[in-house]
Amino acid sequence: MNLFALFLLSHIGCDFVFQSDQMAQCKRSTKLGVKWWPLCKHALTQVPLVLILWGGGWLMAPPTWPHWQPLLIGLVIIVMSHWLIDLFKQNSQPLLKAQLHLTSNRVPVMSYTIDQALHLIVIGLVSMFLGQQWAFNHVNRLLLAASIVLSTLLFADHFISFYLKGLDLNMDRLPDGAKLGRHIGHLERFAILILFYTHNVASIAVIVAIKALTRFKAIESNEHHFAEYYLIGSLLSLIFGCLGGYLLSLIAH
After folding, report:
1. Rounded-to-integer distance, Cα 147 and Cα 5, Å
2. For residue 1, how many C-alpha atoms fall within 13 Å in the half-sphere facing its CB?
3. pLDDT single digits (tens) 205-230
4. Calpha distance 14→10 (Å, rounded)
5. Helix (H) or strand (E) holding 105
6. CB 189 within 8 A of CB 240
7. What are the φ/ψ torsions at residue 78 (nearest 5 degrees)?
8. Distance between CA atoms of 219 and 62, rounded to whole angstroms?
9. Distance from the CA of 101 to the CA of which of 4, 65, 74, 237 falls in 20 to 30 A?
10. What contacts 28, CB < 8 A, 6 or more positions away?
């Protein structure tokens, strides 16, 4: 569990916190010459993240903390696999479109979901085959909690954005281009995490009501299908927030 928690948090930091706009733009290119080196830098971002997290855990000295040998072996495998998955992500989109009979605007959300699933599978397999124990301790509980919070805020943000674009609801023509809505979504899901974790689930209705009240006029006019956009986005945000709060509760207990 220690290695899994380490690699999971470093992956989330690599993909959602420290990834530059240039790296993200290069990943969308289908030309190997354009993206291979930026993708190397992106994948290698995990190296300092893993070492910093491992060093911090080593100072806290939990009894099952991994030694440096399996850590380095796992890190090499994960960095290489991360580079390969990201390298072929964009090139595989035409295949996804043809095999799954998707429209062009729905390919990104499917590609994004498969991409993240493959990263998680690699992290799980590497942690399992390196013979690590899956018992909880205070350090990996903290690492997993941080991963859940960041995933609820940032992974969900990208997923919801891709999903809504896949519905072709003219997001670019909505008020504020939906940019302000993303910040509201972050705060909404963070508040839901706290309320769910503290067993104040009923209070989530207050957050939903406040958000609906501020958007009432836009919902009423329903310009550019805003009501549908708002409803779907809010439900997805609520689902991610509640799921994150539930997972936090499991880890804590």
Report:
1. 8
2. 17
3. 888 888 777 776 666 666 656 777 77
4. 6
5. none
6. yes
7. -70, -40
8. 52
9. 237
10. 90
Nearest one of 152, 112, 16, 6 to 67, comparing CA atoms: 6
What is the rounded CA–CA span in Å between residue 82 and residue 122?
A: 9
Q: How many CB atoms within 10 Å of residue 169?
A: 20
Q: In Å, how far are 3, 63, 72, 85, 124 from 67, measured between CA atoms?
A: 10, 11, 9, 27, 18
Residues in the chain: 253
Which of 23, 27, 13, 249 lies closest to 141, judged by CA? 249
C-alpha distances in angstroms, 232 versus 70, 75, 214, 238?
Answer: 43, 38, 17, 10
- Joined tokens for residue 195: 């309320």
Q: What is the pTM of this model?
A: 0.84
In the structure, what pLDDT confidence band is assigned to residue 32 with cuts at 50, 70 and 90?
low
pLDDT tens, position by position, 128-163: 888 656 667 788 888 899 999 999 999 998 898 888
Q: HSE of 248 in the Cβ direction (CA atoms, 13 Å)?
A: 23
At 117, list the tokens.
């699933």
